[in-house]
Amino acid sequence: MLSLSPRPPPTQWNDGETAALVNYLYDHRSEAEGAGNFKQQVLSSAAEYINNHETLQSTWAGPLKTAKSTQNKWTSLKNTFHAIEKYRNQTGVHWDNETGAGIEGPAAVTVWTSYIKVFPLVFILI
After folding, report:
1. Taking each helix axis from N to C terminus, what angle separates 15-27 and 40-51, rounded to the nearest 10 degrees?
2. Which one, of 124, 125, 25, lies nearest residue 65 by Cα?
3. Of 1, 48, 62, 121, which cross-links 12 as Cys (Cβ 3.0–4.6 Å)?
4. How far is CA 24 from the centre of its chain?
5. Phi, psi of 96, deg, nearest 5
6. Which has more pLDDT, 124 or 62?
7. Among the ranges 43-47, 59-63, 92-96, which has the highest mean pLDDT value?
8. What pTM was estimated for this model as a whole?
C-alpha cells in the first residue's frame, strides 16, 4: 500500500501579514518582472521579512510563510484587484473603497446577480 505523507497545514494570512507583504513588494517593485510578478528570490525575502517581523510575531497562526505561500497570496491579491477593477469599470455599477459594491436596491441586486453569473470568481474573491 502506498504511504502518503500528511499535507502540511495551509498558510494563514492575517491583515497585518498581508499588509506587510504588499508593503514589502511595493518597496521592491523595481525587482518585479512585469505584470506584477516577482522572482522567487524576492518572494523568499518577503517571507523571511514577514516571519522575522517583531510586531507580527504575536499574531501568527499556522506555518511560517515560504516563497510559495507568498507567491500564492500575491497571486490571490492580484486576482482580487483585477476582478474589482473589471467590475467597477462597468457602466451602471458602484464601487468605493469604504463600502465596496454597496449593493442596495432591486436594480443594483439585479446587476450584481447578472455579473456573478458570468464571472463567478468575483463573488468568491470579494
Report:
1. 140
2. 25
3. 62
4. 14
5. -140, 160
6. 62
7. 43-47
8. 0.75
